[in-house]
Amino acid sequence: MSNQQRETFFTKPVNLYYMLLGSTLGLSLLGLIMVFSASSIYSLDAKGSSFAIVLRQFIFLVLSIPMAWVFSRFSLAQWKLLARFGFIVSIGLLVLVQLIGKSVNGNHNWISLGFVDVQPSEVAKFLMILWAGFMLAKQERSGVDHTVVLKQIAPAFALCIILVMAGSDLGTASIFACILAGLLWVSGLRLGIFGIALSLGLVGLTAAILTSPYRVQRFMVFLNPFAEDQYKLYGWQPAHSLLGLASGGFFGVGLGASRQKWGNLAEAHTDFIFAVIGEELGLFGTIATLLLLSILLFSIFKLALRAHDPMVRYVASGFGCWLAIQTILNIGSAISVLPVVGVTLPFVSYGGSALIATYMGIGFVLGAARRDPVIYKELRETGFKWLR
Prior knowledge:
By secondary structure, this protein is mainly α. The protein has one domain. It has 15 helices and 3 strands. The protein has a 3-stranded antiparallel sheet, covered by helices on one side.
């Protein structure tokens, strides 16, 4: 009986809407709390106030939520109109970074607005998914062979990757490559062609690593960050991330009581926030975080499968692939099973540009759910207008 109840809950269409909404807000709230905890020491030292960084995150969250609500009300025709210009706008943003951008921690991928720095490549990720979804849907309707669309989409993504790599940001470039791979996979590209494309991507990644001594060291050290000759060099971040996670136990040392954030763990509020969660909230906190992320991804992919319009299906799937691979890379770096690539944990890490971009995607998927007749009917029956 209990198995049947669980199956009913997870398969009932309207519950996918609630799961998407609940997990997004839950992760955002968790992120706000943990950004404050992880950044307070650094913020006090660099900004003069323990609240400076979390206040910025809060402002971006306050802007992102109503923005997602507006996007969820967009018609499919409006999304298709926006999608037509997704590639052009993305390239424009990435070129602008190279012209007037600034470098942060060796990556030239930021634009300073004076009061805050923004990362246009985050918005470009969503716009490229939107454009690629539009192109794949157009191909599906026309019945053209998949290889034709591959010739259009792959070079466009390759251009984005080249522009990002011009700023030495291998992490973001890897995300773009993985988004492309995910989109081509869900589009049904023939396995042989997909394998060739994947092999070319891996060759490019290998070349990017081997041509940079810094990246080679990052890649070599992740399996043993405590090695005597690397611990105080490239192994420092992954080693102290592991120390934080190991000291958390089942329930953590207590919220705000992390020791690693006191100068030992660089980027504690961005790339390594998962380690702070593990240290302060313990195994319970990390499992809760993974559970929320799993619910989020499950609801996105299930809603994608329910979509009748092919563009909605491709864009929602691409958005899910983006969040999934970024989660894997971030947590993989934190637990030292992957090299440190410098990507944030979706909705949890500090980053206004990332928060806005991911909420754009959430707005799209929520809109897709609202256009589902079964889901919309049940939302109307609740009597809460803001839900629908």
